[in-house]
Amino acid sequence: MTDADATTATTVGTPEPLPIDDAADVCADVTANVGRVIVGNGETVEHVVTTILARGHVLLEDVPGVGKTMLARSIARSIDCEFSRVQFTPDLLPSDVTGVNVFNRKSREFEFQPGPVFGNVVLADEINRAPPKSQAAMLEAMEEGQVTVDGESRPLPEPFAVIATQNAVEPERTYELPFAEVDRFTKKLELGYPEPEEESEVLARTVGHHPIERLEAVTDLETIVRARETVAAVTVNEPVREYATRLSNYTREHARIGASPRGTIALLRAAAARATLDGREYVVPDDVRREAPVVLAHRVRTDDHRHGGADVVADALDHVPVE
Q: Which domains does the chain have, with CATH numbers?
C-alpha cells in the first residue's frame, strides 16, 4: 500500500456510531478494567477515557511514583491497539519521535522509518525532560494527526491519542512545556497520593506479580472509533455553546492569558464525551461545569502565583450564570 493509499484509507468513509448505551458501556468497561490496576482514581481514569473518545490528549502531572505511567499503560492494554512509548530525555531528537528517512543501499532510495509517534495510544513519558525542540515534535501530531518529515506529510493511525506524563519536581532538571503545546492537551490531570487504605490495597495487589501483567483488552480499535463517532454526534445546543463561550471569555477578562477558542472547542468535546458516559445524546450545562476545571485551567496564565488558572476557572464557574 502506498502512502497515498494509506491516506485515502483513513479518510474515506465514516464509521457507524455506536448506540449511545453501547458507547457508555465501553467507557464503563475500560474504566473498570483500569481499576484493576489503578486504585482510588476512578474519576481520573474516567477523564482519560472520555478524552480519548473526545479525540483529545491528556497531560498527567504529579510527583514520581503515584502511577502516571501505569495509568497510561493500563488504558492502552484495555484497548486492543498499537501502543508505543517515548521516553523523553535531554538528548532526545525530534526525529527520535517522528521517524526518519533512511537510505536503502539495495534499492538506492530513501525509505521512511516511522518513529514511536505512529501508534494508537502513545505514552510520552516525562515529556518535560526533553528540550523544547524535541517536545515540539509532538505539536503537529497532536493537532493535525500527521507528521511532516523532509517536507512530506504522513498520516498517523486512527485513533491517535497522546498520554503525556510530567514530573512536578526537580524544576532545575526539566524544561517548561511551550504554552502552544500545553494548549493542545485537552485535559491536565493529577493523581495525588493515595489514601492509607488505598495504598494498602495497592501493596496487596502488587506483591508478587503486578496486575498490569494480567490485564487484558476489553475493547478494540473498531469499537473505540465508533464510540468516537457517537461522541461527535452528541447534540450541543446553542445555550450550552453560549455558556461555554462565556466561561472562556471570563478567563480572558480576568487573567493575563485566558482560554483560547481551541480550549472552548475542547471543553464542548469533553462535555459531549461526559454526556455519552452518562448515556445521554445531548450535553447539559452540568457536563460543561464538570469538565471545565480540567480542560480550561492549564490554558490560563495569571500574574499572581497565589491566584492561578484553577482559581480563575473556579471563579468563572461561580460567577458566570447558566442562562
A: 15-227 (3.40.50.300), 234-319 (1.10.8.80)
Q: How many helices (H) and strands (E) does the chain have?
A: 14, 11
Residues 6+ apart with CB under 8 A from 146: 140, 153, 154, 155, 156
Q: 214 CB contacts (<8 Å, ≥6 apart)?
A: none
Task: Summarize the chain as % helix, strand, coil (round to 5).
Answer: 50, 15, 35
Contacts of 55 (CB under 8 A, 6+ apart): 159, 161, 228, 231, 232, 269
Please give the full DSSP string across 121-182, using - where no structure is assigned: EEEEETGGGS-HHHHGGGHHHHHHSEEEETTEEEEPPSS-EEEEEEESS-GGGS-PPPHHHH
Return d(Cα 226, Cα 54) in angstroms, integer: 12
pLDDT for position 305: 82
The pLDDT tens digits for 149-188 are 888 899 999 899 999 998 877 766 788 888 888 999 999 9
CA distance linking residue 295 with residue 253, whole number of Å = 18
Task: Supply 198's cell numbers.
Answer: 488505598
Contact present, 49 and 25 (Cβ < 8 Å): no
CA distances from 104 to 59, 98, 115, 181, 322 (A): 38, 19, 17, 34, 61
